Amino acid sequence: MAETWGCQARRYAAVLVWVPLLAGVPLFALHGGSAQVLGQIAILSTVAAASVATVLTGRVAALVVLGVATVVASTQGEGWMTPWTLLAITAPVVLRGWPLAVTVVAAAAGSATAMWRVDDVGETFWIGVAGVLLAGGATTAYLRLLEANAALRCTRAELARVAVAEERERFSRDLHDLLGHTLSVMVVKAQAVRRLAERDPAAAAVHAADIERIGRDALVDVRRAVDAVRAPRLSEELEGARHALYAAGIRSEVVPFGGELPEPVDETLAWVVREGATNVIRHSGATQATFALTGVDGEVELTVADDGVGGPLEVSRRDGGLEGLRRRVAAVGGLLTYEPADEGFRLVARVPVT
What H or E segment, with its residue span, contains residue 296? Predict the structure, then answer.
């Protein structure tokens, strides 16, 4: 997971801020001739450069160079112990787990050995060793907190992206299922108006009034879909399917289910009825359609069957249509199957009642 620049900058600052101090303290303990002083300055320069390289590159090789330079620096006598603390602070940048723990403990042990060689074991000795351990532990905790925060920010952004994608899919599916059925009925009724306009104006007027009513209902449905409050009822959809099929010249039969259905099941099956009726009107060329509800082993099964030409020639893979309907049914633990055949089309949805 990629880190943000802000996280990297805070990680760099948490370690690099100590480089001038911890690598600079031994400058006050320079001693010997000019050649020795130059050598000591070179050692401190190596310590500082290796620390910066470890932080910026994250390479273990740079940390190894820092460790070697720290050991060399500690041989220069009293006042040269701070590079051990710098080693303990830098190690968490590139190491994890037991390698990190071993490195921090080794830095504390190296500091203790170096101080023991130049001074007696006393209060300063224990403070120095504890300081190395504390520096390594505190820096490790801070860096891991930065990484955890970066991971949480990335996760939050991903959750927001998924939520937007799911909402777009829901809206697309709802519009397809709502308007696909409604517009199909309006087209059928408009065709009826065109056929009846001359020979039966009264019947044409009835169909025209139905088109107006259906259009008004469609506006309400779209508003509800936008507000995510559209919840169709199975009984209403069965009645609407019967009227739509009648207008299209298709006989319909409904075999009801003898019992109450939980609201999620009722709503899901209502969408199945709507999509099934739309497909019968649009694609089947059928003369009869049947909607049968039966209870089977703790499940309710809805079957939509017609005697047409076999249903859609190609099942859409878009968010709407039968694939969108399959996802609706799966969301409540059910299963949707469909069987196009020469003698008609059979759509079956099985949903657990509990």
Answer: strand 288-296
